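Re-run requested by the PI after the first attempt was lost when the workstation crashed. Everything re-entered from the original request form. Ligand of interest: adenosine monophosphate.
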Amino acid sequence: MAELGKDINRAKQLLDHGELVAIPTETVYGLAANALDATAAARIFAAKNRPSFDPLIVHVATAMRVHELVTDFPDQAQALAASFWPGPLTLVLPKKNHIPDLVTAGLPTVGVRCPSHELTLELLHLLDYPLAAPSANPFGYVSPTRPEHVQEQLGSQVAYILDGGPCRVGVESTIVGFADGPVIYRLGGVAVEEIENVVGRVRVMTHSSSNPVAPGQLASHYAPARQIVLGNIAELLTQHPNQKVALLRYHKRLPDTPVPQIVLSPSGSLEEAAQNLFAALRQFDKMDVTLVLAELVPDTGIGRAINDRLRRAATSR
Ligand code: AMP
Ligand code: MG
């Protein structure tokens, strides 16, 4: 079991010694280490069983600190940082040499982000290095949105879990790179529409196969243990009559059925649905069912990121 608490000085002390600390962010919990220390970063890959081709996101206290990490911080990237930081946006920029290759998986770029969570921001301000932090889950599984999710899966691998409560956004950051203009590599907490309001039209390139620029692009990712089938739930129920199923609904319970159900947003808001999504997927894995029948949510705003995660969760490994 990892130690759990709100003590940022304790977190700093451990990080200063190259150890792993789980940190709360508004998106999901991160598994953090000193981003400039290759040995510390290697512990992240080992704890997550993460393949070395999957780069880590580097977390900074302010946009000013980005200049220490990149060789170019283009105007469009600065405009996005000014609009959405602290917040769920990662910018992919050309890296400086002192960032270990392990952190960027050998890429010439680094993903940087300023997270919006009071405790983690305070911690980042205390440190004299940035924090490399991917999601604090075993590679390929659903990201953790509550401290107990980290404790359950990686409790024996991290020294300390900084307890920041449940994550406010609940899906990972939107990843934006720049190649002939802005490109979205991963849909996330900042909606495509919001990005376009700042920099104009962006390309969305979230589907890539064997050698992804951003491994969140792998077709099967964010995958729970239970098999998930997407579609119209009433129809799916008639197609799977003899199975132990559970339902994942967006807004309302399906009436007149004894089947267990999780409703993502009783109030019908996509933001609430995003907050609850990963905890729901984890809950199904604890239920005595063989199949989860799920429906997509409205494909707008953060709904696009929710649907992206549902599709990847439904793609069997
Ligand atoms: P996680 O925080 O677990 O969602 O993982 C970080 C993700 O950020 C990676 O899987 C990539 O999708 C993305 N990422 C990090 N650095 C880069 C980079 N230099 N280029 C492209 N994508 C990146
Ligand atoms: Mg991840």
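Saved to the shared folder this time. Residues 65 and 308 are 31 Å apart (CA to CA).
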